[in-house]
Design goal:
single chain, about 600 residues, mainly alpha, three-stranded mixed beta sheet, about 5% strand, elongated
């Protein structure tokens, strides 16, 4: 470099600075390049070399620049390019064993360079990672075209392949013509994994390799054909597998679309990921979790103007999210309403029977507004899923869209013509006066005599007043007496607990042992102290809620049904309990623990 600079310094002034003290200047300039990884210093037996990364990248880029011009040459390698690349700058990939894996997870970035290793006797090939697979396949197909153009190769191979494609001779001739005239179109068909394209390249490759295997010696033109065939064969199989997976994935989403439209119509994500096809194969596996999330997101968000999305995301009790097809939202809601009507009616009827038996009344018996408020309360407590649906604006939009589509609801409407939700009394087909009359009709006749009821109610109020006065007097230090009513109530509670114990606890078990079994099913924390703390918190919460219920609702009926509802409310209202797994076992435990408290009476 110093000699060159001294010779040309006068003609090219930019070389003047390198004419003197050249060694020092070179090391000053090249050291930052070493540190930046743009070049490498190689010490070998023959001497020291400077390896310039960019030089070899550009060299390979130029080698593949005009694949038509190099169609009669083997793929570039170190021998043909007259270069030597350090091993740590090369990544070797065996074409027959490793290329498919590489295609599934390609290298990011141009370095290291890729060396493709073919079976024995076939030269290696150098390629940039960015050229795999598209540009590599373009070069391979152009080499095949060049091979077919020579002598009678095209007619010879075409005639030999006809027996493999009986009945598809026209398609076979069409593929050969496209290779000769529009080779890149053949590559597009191969990338799409088309049936005939896959069969053609498989038979084409197998037949030529079989012919070449009979030759004693292979020329360069034979070797470049074999290089191309191995690449085409491997990548053809890769794209065919991808096409099969796409088809399998598409069929899986078709199955998902059908399954999500079947009863019970509304599905949580936990239910959706458990869907299986008609052969019992889980759908999650035929598509990935990311594919499923993307499909659901598109179904929930994509929609035309003035229309709802095909899939709705609805919120149920405890903020549970579920997916439902918009055309199924109305029948789903209607079924909830039909199932909820007898539950709410019975709850109101039982409540009023209990109140009337005590010669009492309440505002809901006299005023429609209070009656509506009572119904809403029971709908929220007893059928929370229905209440969530009725308060969802999407229900009106779904019904409105169905009506605009020509669907008639007859007598099963949720909304008035003005778009307002019907009152609960209308939806549940109940009439305040009729319900009150029916409740009184069940009881003895004197419960229907207003004057008698008023008189007895007055006496009870006076008795209650006296009881309050006695209580206050006792609190101020007066003589304490145990009310017989308290004893009777304690006895009722204990008897209810005994009845429930017999009903819930299996015959071959006892309540403490059964509680322990249920606890092990919902309390899955690993640390002993954490398990004990969680159990203590839950027991304390249940104890307080049961105590409040017994004190605040004197007429509450202690049945398995009422305890089930109380347990459900306790769990759903507490965020910590809501997040626990095995909710069914947790609620069973809560009910059974309340039964144990009832047996103790004083807790």
């Amino acid at each position: 470099m110093e000699k060159y600079a001294q010779h040309y310094a006068n003609e090219q002034p930019e070389w003047a600075r390198w004419a003197k003290d050249t060694s020092r200047r070179i090391w000053e300039e090249i050291t930052p390049l070493f540190e930046a990884g743009k070049c490498t210093l190689l010490t070998e037996q023959s001497g020291t070399r400077i390896y310039m990364n960019r030089f070899y990248l550009d060299l390979l880029e130029n080698a593949y620049q005009s694949p038509d011009d190099s169609a009669d040459m083997i793929f570039p390698n170190e021998t043909t390019l007259k270069i030597k690349i350090p091993l740590d700058h090369l990544r070797s990939i065996n074409v027959t064993t490793d290329l498919v894996t590489y295609l599934g997870s390609p290298q990011e970035g141009p370095l290291p360079l890729i060396k493709l290793i073919f079976p024995r006797g076939i030269p290696d090939a150098l390629v940039l990672s960015s050229m795999i697979p598209r540009r590599l396949m373009e070069a391979a197909i152009l080499k095949i075209r060049s091979f077919l153009r020579k002598t009678d190769n095209k007619e010879y191979i075409q005639n030999k392949l006809i027996p493999y494609h009986q009945g598809k001779e026209n398609q076979l001739r069409d593929v050969f013509n496209r290779i000769m005239v529009r080779p890149l179109e053949c590559l597009s068909n191969l990338e799409e994994g088309e049936d005939f394209s896959f069969l053609f390249w498989s038979s084409f490759s197998g037949m030529i390799k079989s012919d070449f295997a009979k030759r004693n010696e292979l020329e360069n033109e034979d070797l470049l054909v074999l290089q191309s065939l191995y690449l085409i064969e491997i990548i053809n199989n890769y794209y065919r597998a991808k096409a099969f997976k796409r088809k399998e994935r598409s069929m899986a989403f078709n199955d998902l679309d059908i399954l999500i439209g079947q009863p019970p119509y509304a599905y949580s994500i936990d239910s959706i990921i458990k869907f299986v096809n008609s052969k019992g194969v889980p759908l999650l596996g035929l598509y990935s979790d990311e594919d499923l999330q993307s499909w659901l997101h598109n179904k929930v968000t994509d929609h035309k103007e003035d229309e709802l999305p095909a899939l709705l995301l609805i919120t149920g009790p405890a903020d549970a999210k579920r997916y439902i097809k918009k055309e199924n939202y109305y029948p789903f809601s209607l079924k909830l309403l039909l199932d909820g009507r007898p539950i709410v009616r019975k709850a109101v009827s039982d409540r009023w029977l209990s109140i009337i038996k005590d010669y009492q009344d309440e505002p809901a018996m006299e005023k429609d507004e209070e009656f509506e408020r009572l119904l809403k309360r029971y709908v929220g407590e007893l059928t929370p899923e229905l209440m969530a649906v009725l308060t969802d604006k999407k229900l009106f939009l779904a019904c409105d869209e169905m009506e605009r589509g020509g669907i008639v609801f007859d007598n099963s409407r949720f909304f008035s013509p003005e778009g307002a939700l019907f009152p609960m009394a209308t939806l549940f087909l109940v009439n305040r006066k009729e319900m009150l009359s029916d409740a009184r009709a069940i009881l003895p006749f004197w419960y229907s005599i207003p004057l008698l009821i008023s008189f007895i109610s007055f006496l009870q109020k006076m008795k209650n007043i006296k009881g309050e006065m006695a209580k206050k007097k006792a609190e101020l230090g007066g003589p304490k007496r145990t009310a017989p009513a308290n004893k009777n109530r304690d006895m009722e509670i204990r008897e209810a607990g005994q009845k429930l114990e017999t009903e819930i606890v299996p015959p071959d078990n006892d309540i403490d042992n059964y509680l322990a079994q249920l606890e092990n099913r919902w309390n899955t924390l690993l640390k002993k102290q954490a398990r004990e703390d969680l159990l203590t918190d839950i027991q304390s919460l249940v104890r307080d809620r049961l105590r409040q219920t017994l004190r605040g609702q004197r007429h509450v009926m202690l049945t398995k049904d009422s305890l089930d509802k109380l347990a459900r409310r306790i769990v759903e209202e507490n965020p910590t309990l809501r997040d626990l797994h095995n909710q069914d076992y947790l609620r069973q435990y809560t009910v059974l623990y309340m039964v144990k408290l009832l047996l103790q009476v004083k807790f």
